[in-house]
Amino acid sequence: MNSLRNHWNHFWFEAAAPDNLGLCRIILFGTMFLYYVFAPWLFPVWGYHQNFVPWASVSRALWSPVWLMSVLHLAPASPAVLEAIQFVWRLALLLSCMGLFTRISTAISFAFGVYLFGIPAGFGRIHHTEQVLVLVFLAMAFSRCGDAWSIDALIRKRKTPAAPAPPAMSGEYTWPIRMIWVVIVLIYFSAGISKARHSGFAWINSETMRNYLIWHSYHVTVVDPLTSWGPALARSAIVSRLLAVFGMGLELALPIALFSKRARWLLVPSVAAMQVSIALLMGPNFYPILMCQLLWVPWDRVVAYFTRPRAAASGDPVLQPGR
Amino acid sequence: MCIFFGYSYLPMPTSHSRKVRFFWILALVVIAVVWVVGAYILTPMIIERAYRGESLAVFNRMIRGQAHIPVTEYLARWSRPLSKVSCALAILWVYSLLAVVGLTREGKSGLSDSAGKVAMSRPRVRVVYALMAVILGGSAYDVVRDKEHWPFSQYSMDSELVLSRKFSIIRLYGVVQQSPLVEIQLDNNRYLRPFDASRLSEALGRALRQGKLEEGLADCLRRYETLRRAGIHGGPPLVGLRAYMVTWTVEESVSNIDRPDHKELLGEVVLRGAGSD
Q1: How many angstroms separate the CA of residue B61 from the nearest CA in chain A?
Q2: How sure is the predictor about A321, in pLDDT bands with cuts at 50, 70 and 90?
């Protein structure tokens, strides 16, 4: 039992430096800020989904709030108010990325994110693109992700040089990353379990994938496929079934990536490739979750790798965290 | 279990761990073989014999509809849930095998004694556990109950079997001219954003069930015209909007995309002062 507890604690609370969490904060909130601000302009075909304001003017006849919005008695505000909320939220994403007022900005990113993501989900159908962000932002809001690589850390250091610095190594910097991994894994594993529950092996060993590949070309999805390859691939029953095997297999195997570094190298890029394939062949894009996959990378080591030779040559210390 | 905690596992004496591993792997293999033989060979055989009244009395009594139900139907009734149960067992089997291999791995645990210590204050650890309970508990509840409580979900999209090539969806058609009727299929997401085809179909379906379809259609028509005037799309001016339940038989060539097999009118709205732009 002792050993099991050790392993549990090691997974969640292994003492780590704050650098990786700080860098993950920059990547997560930075990519999301860019995505939600620029996608509507750069990709007008599908980017309009990233602008929440138009939902304010949609008739309530088409509104059916999701569970959380219903519990909190939330509904789309007027266009002006929604515009303001969206502006504050985008600003909070930027500040979270920069690590300025990190506690507040990450909390706003989460709270306003719940509201903004919850609005379209109440109009007809839940697209599972942004649920991951709600849970990931929640973990970040409770974390100490502003302890390093942040403006807050620089200000703290400048204002009170004598103030005690955050601990060099702590479980505080491990659990948020692990939580994000678990959230990502849960999404895929749940999807795999759903297929097993509703269809079993027949999901693979039937015409199902073939029909999905063709069906998605009939303008029935959130975004049309990026290519017309889906129906072409569907001509081959073997290819369709192989795609089904890979899809369901990857979803069910992803939990292994939590515990095995070797498996992580194979499974995480494969799952990312699967998401890209879905966008290419069937349409729905899951860019937020795709960007969250970046948080599997140990960014502190990546930065150390790229800074080490130069630092060694100049005699400077390697990787100076912004603590 | 140890698979859940990394690739360095409980240290065990070498010979003991080998025996334990052998025992468990053997047990798993036997269970798998028994299941495959029992579920895929013996049971169909028993069903066929019982159908003919040639099996044990207890099985023979279970089948009494020979007069109007063919034996293939009984076999199909067995194989339908079998695919799901086998799939679930296969998942469990693979993870059990990984756990056994992990648990009985030779060599020392890679963790030092200090590795298991939590380098955090107790109140903070409690906060983390509370957060874990919310995130993992909410997700687990939805997966187990097969329900969706946004932001938690069982992620059941595209999990159903689609064996038929026919499918139906609610689709809007814009009425360009009333008499003779000229209508266009509004199948481009640009026409009615922020809606997309899948979201709009579901929303209209719900509005139809709640008796609010006309209100919803009126909103869509206003939206179409507003977006048209703003230059978001290049569709023609409309005098009305119709909601149809359209059914296709899908083709690899997708050549029948503009010619559904069947269209059933669900509702219609006409623009006030139709014809004026």
Answers
A1: 29
A2: very low
B115 close contact with A: CB closer than 8 A: yes
| Closest-CA residue to B245 (of B205, B196, B194, B272) | B205
The residue whose two tokens read 């977006």 is: B227
CA angle B251/B253/B254 to nearest 5° reads 65
Contact: B150, A121; criterion CB under 8 Å = yes
Two tokens, residue B105? 């791995």
User: Taken in order A85, A86, A89, A90, is the CA torsion positive or negative?
Assistant: negative
Nearest CA of chain B to the CA of A91: how many Å? 23
Q: Are B146 and A10 in contact (CB < 8 Å)? A: no
Q: What three-state secondary structure class fits B36?
A: helix
* Interval A268-295: pLDDT, tens: 999 999 999 999 999 988 899 999 999 9
In this prediction the pTM is 0.87
Picking from A119, A22, A45, the residue whose alpha carbon sits closest to that of residue B189 is A45
* ipTM of predicted complex: 0.89
Q: What is the DSSP string of B103-142?
A: HT--S--S--GGGGS--S-HHHHHHHHHHHHHHHHHHHHH
Contact B151 A131 (CB under 8 A): yes
Q: Report whether B84 contacts A200 (CB < 8 A).
A: yes
The rounded distance, in Å, linking the Cα atoms of A317 and A307 is: 10
Nearest by Cα to B197 from B186, B184, B206, B205: B186
